[in-house]
Write a structure and sequence with these properties.
Blueprint (H helix, E strand, L loop, with lengths): L1 E4 L4 H10 L5 E3 L17 H16 L3 E10 L19 H11 L7 E12 L2 E13 L15 E3 L11 H7 L1 H15 L1
Parallel strand pairs: 1-2, 1-3
Antiparallel strand pairs: 3-4, 4-5, 5-6
Helix pairs in contact: 4-5
The structure holds inosine 5'-triphosphate.
Inosine 5'-triphosphate binds next to strand 3.
Cofactor: Mg(2+)
InterPro entries: dITP/XTP_pyrophosphatase, ITPase-like_fam, RdgB/HAM1
Catalytic activity: dITP + H2O = dIMP + diphosphate + H(+); ITP + H2O = IMP + diphosphate + H(+); XTP + H2O = XMP + diphosphate + H(+)
Length: about 190
């Protein structure tokens, strides 16, 4: 069975493909010939996930799901949040990481969480699935796997960052994996 995943982010596509291997074939925006950068103008993860999934329904008449996600840092009033992809004004992960580290410099409160909200558009209805994982922000970058803020995020109960984990290991515990599991349970019931 095929599922359309409304993303331009190759890393998200890889994580979702790996998690759904043997269950679903995952097509991303490029695969369905959608070459636009869908505007994400909402101020919530749920709002932006819904903008992406409904764009595909409207313009391609395909059922589809989308993931809007980001990092919330307690000491930064939950920033970067929905602005995670372009926190520094650029999509460059290193610049975004450095901005978070600079803003947290000297701050002992390193608590943070990754959140994913999935919007699944099916039969004209929007189904929402959420996943989150608590952790802390390291004082320095560590690891080269993963993407985005992975090199500075250490999930609670671990002494390594997401960027030091293999994709399979991250996929066992991540915010995205938790939201995805909920969506799979829903699809199984349907
Ligand atoms: P699409 O909208 O095309 O799916 P995007 O990268 O713009 O791709 P978002 O708008 O959801 O996705 O922004 C999420 C940003 O949050 C992403 O670019 C990363 O910087 C960060 N992020 C999300 N999930 C992450 C993860 O698992 N590990 C590290 N950083 C993550």
């Amino acid at each position: 069975k095929k599922l359309v995943f409304a993303t331009n982010n190759q890393h998200k596509t890889e994580e979702i493909r790996s998690a759904l291997e043997g269950k679903y074939e995952v097509l991303n925006l490029e695969d369905i010939g959608c070459l636009v950068d869908i505007p994400e103008t909402a101020d919530t993860f749920e709002g932006n996930a819904t903008l992406k999934s409904s764009y595909v329904v409207e313009h391609f008449n395909l059922e589809c799901f989308a993931d809007d996600s980001g990092l919330e840092v307690d000491a930064l009033n939950n920033e970067p949040g929905v602005y995670s992809a372009r926190y520094s004004g650029s999509r460059d992960s290193l610049e975004n990481i450095q901005l978070v580290l600079a803003k947290l410099e000297g701050n002992p409160n390193r608590k943070a969480r990754f959140k994913t909200v999935i919007s699944l558009m099916q039969d004209g209805k929007n189904h929402i699935f959420e996943g989150l994982i608590e952790g802390t922000i390291r004082t320095e970058i560590s690891g080269s796997k993963g993407f985005g803020y992975d090199p500075i995020f250490q999930p609670d109960g671990y002494d390594i960052t997401f960027a030091e984990m293999d994709m399979a290991e991250k996929n066992k515990i991540s915010h995205r994996a938790i939201a995805l599991k909920k969506m799979l349970e829903f699809l199984k019931r349907g």
